[in-house]
Design goal:
Keywords: Signal
InterPro entries: Cu_amine_oxidase-like_N, DUF4362, Mao_N_sf
Order of helices and strands: HEEEEEHEEHEHEEEEEEE
Pfam family, one: Cu_amine_oxidN1
Number of strands: 15
Strand content: 25-35%
Radius of gyration: 20 Å
Protein name: DUF4362 domain-containing protein
Helix content: 10-25%
Structural class: alpha+beta
Length: 211
């Protein structure tokens, strides 16, 4: 499970002010693009910049890690950078429908089946992956479900976050499940559910798709 969060940092520039270390010089271009994190636009401090090198965008790793509640340290003796992240990145509050959709969540109101199919494929290939499903109450409060595949235990960790539901339980619940299956809803549709879950229910219905 540890890979799924750290994976978002791969390919980022090791820009660790005030530390500086380089083995060679490269030519890069400033890349003045907008930066969105968890559906919320972020503005870099004036002393930082996003760079373009050979078609790849590089973001200062200290800034990015701290936005996810993490910490970055540099060991001068070992010439090593360490990134320590919280178990799950914190989402903005409020977390509106528009923010969740922009953030790539699988929106239950207008679901994109390809997103859950990609996650199912990762599970079948024993590749660590995660997906977040988001819906909203009538009042606009987000109901968030996260699925995290852990290749070490072969389990799918399910986290149900209702902490922003002002008129609900406002609770966070987490269980581990053995599999994610397509129950094949009527008339050729699909109904995905988790089975073999502990501590809550043996089965958890997730989302349905029409034919």
């Amino acid at each position: 499970m540890k890979k799924f969060v750290i994976g978002v940092l791969f390919g980022l520039l090791l820009a660790l002010a005030p530390f500086a270390y380089a083995t060679s010089k490269i030519e890069v271009d400033l890349f003045p693009v907008k930066l969105w994190l968890n559906g919320e636009q972020k503005k870099l401090p004036e002393e930082l910049a996003i760079l373009n090198y050979r078609g790849h965008a590089y973001v200062p790793i200290r800034y990015l890690a701290e936005q996810f509640g993490g910490k970055v340290s540099y060991d001068e003796r070992e010439e090593a950078v360490s990134v320590s992240l919280a178990p799950l990145p914190a989402l903005p509050d409020p977390y509106t429908y528009e923010m969740a959709e922009r953030n790539g969540d699988l929106m239950k109101r207008r679901p994109d089946k390809k997103k859950i199919e990609t996650f199912v494929r990762s599970v079948h290939e024993d590749t660590e992956d995660w997906i977040r499903l988001t819906s909203h109450t009538i009042e606009g409060d987000p109901l968030i479900e996260s699925l995290i595949y852990d290749s070490a235990s072969k389990n799918i960790h399910y986290i149900q976050d209702r902490s922003r539901d002002r008129f609900g339980s406002m609770a966070i619940m987490a269980v581990s499940c053995k599999r994610l299956e397509d129950a094949k809803a009527g008339e050729g549709g699909s109904k995905y559910r988790l089975v073999g879950c502990d501590g809550y229910s043996r089965e958890i219905d997730l989302i349905s798709f029409d034919k």
